[in-house]
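TEACHING EXERCISE
Course module: macromolecular assemblies
Task: Read the component lines below, then compare them to the predicted structure of the full complex.
Student: A.B.
Group: 4
Components provided:
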Amino acid sequence: MPIDASLVGRAFPATQPHPVTAEAVQAFTAAVGSAPDGNVPPTFPIVVAFAALQDFLAAEQVELSRIVHGDQRFRYQRPVAVGDVLTAQLTVTGVRSIGGNDIVSTSSEITDADGGVVCTATATIVHRGGAA
Amino acid sequence: MNDLTPGAELETKTFDVTRADLVAYAHASGDHNPIHQDEEIALAVGLPGVIAHGMYTLALVGRAIGEWTGGAEVVEIGAKFVAPVVVPAEGAAQVTVAGTVGERTDDGLLPLALTITVDGTKVLGAPRATVRA
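Instructor-supplied answer key:
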């Protein structure tokens, strides 16, 4: 199913608030093999950024198995800490079609419980429409 | 901790990635895309096999930075996922993260120039990482 180019500029509803718990950080560092050092890993906000992405895909009825991650970047205003409660709001910034695949660019603002921006997560996802 | 003088070479890190790591990462990140777990589905959508989450590979970059810098604050991290990291059913894929310290920016941050490869093939494109150190 092609992704509708008219989505460009649309801001999707913010995700549910995601508490950054010590357990969640520990599970993440353990999966990656990092020694726990008290810091939240710099790619940890993918947890809430991915939730925003999943909400977007569900809203557009796109099957996750046809999605490949094209790129991902995080630019921080401040480090994430255990105890933060993060929310992400995704905006579609571009849709283009190349060789039967739709390439969707997104930017998600990740904010804390007070509404302050913690980081901006930009991502490109590739919807492998044609491959079978 | 490594020498963070601009121009210094960072100690190259090689990390194993197993299917079990991907299962653990799926639970930790919430990304349960079956292409990272299920060979049949991965092949059915035209992939060469079960592939690591791109974000798993990028998380390994975060791990390397943490080890190099003694846990310095990361101000920016990102990359393009330019080649799949195929993870075999038995054994592991090996992701190598190499880097050098860049020139300090006007606002006092240190960019790291990184190369991330599997078997000599670059798997992350245009990697960017900047730390406050």
